[in-house]
Specification:
The chain is mainly beta and 157 residues long. The chain has one domain (27-146): Protein of unknown function DUF192 (Jelly Rolls, Sandwich). The protein is 13% helix and 34% strand. It has helices at residues 14-23, 56-61, 143-146; strands spanning 7-8, 11-12, 37-41, 47-53, 73-83, 87-88, 96-101, 107-114, 126-127, 133-140. The strands form three sheets. The chain has a six-stranded mixed β-sheet with strand order 3-4-5-10-7-8. It has a two-stranded antiparallel ribbon with strand order 1-2. The radius of gyration is 20 Å and the shape is globular.
Length: 157
């Protein structure tokens, strides 16, 4: 039988197939991806699926050695307490927008199109860390401008 509307024992399989297809269209992660991800919502309504970085070794590695960070994806760094947190781009291969977020979930500082640094660690400059922040969001370079992000804007999760 070549019909999607296959009936077996009087039960139509088409509704079950449609349910499965629609369920897979969700923006929310499922399975293993759901264990270390969080969806952040930008002021323009864009949902950014982020890998959550909690452990010091994950935070230190961040985007090092990765070839890309797709649109609407990010890395979300969660620090134990508010503070000034400068970031660097050592062994990062692509430009990133680094967005510092205050404890009250507002954009505190932005380093747009932060360039990669494939030099020796002592030759890579630090960026940001001038504003009090507890969270840092990294997205592909140009994302902050694309979504109109500016200091003071709320970021929800």
């Amino acid at each position: 039988m070549n019909s999607l509307f296959y009936r077996s024992g009087g039960v139509a399989l088409l509704p079950a197939l449609m349910f499965c297809l629609l369920a897979s269209c969700s923006d929310e992660p499922t399975g293993v991806d759901a264990l270390n991800t969080k969806t952040l919502i930008l002021p323009d309504g864009t949902k950014v699926l982020c890998e959550v970085m909690l452990r010091p070794e994950d935070m230190a590695r961040g985007m090092m050695h990765r070839d890309q960070l797709p649109p609407k994806r990010g890395l979300f760094f969660v620090h134990d307490r508010p503070g000034p947190y400068p970031y660097w781009m050592h062994n990062v291969k692509v430009p990133l927008d680094i967005i510092w977020i205050s404890p009250d979930r507002r954009v505190a500082e932005i380093s747009a199109d932060t360039p990669p640094c494939l030099k020796e660690p002592d030759q890579c400059p630090n960026y940001g860390g001038r504003a009090l922040a507890q969270y840092v969001l990294e997205m592909a370079g140009g994302s902050a401008k694309l979504h109109g992000l500016k200091p003071g804007d709320p970021v929800n999760w």
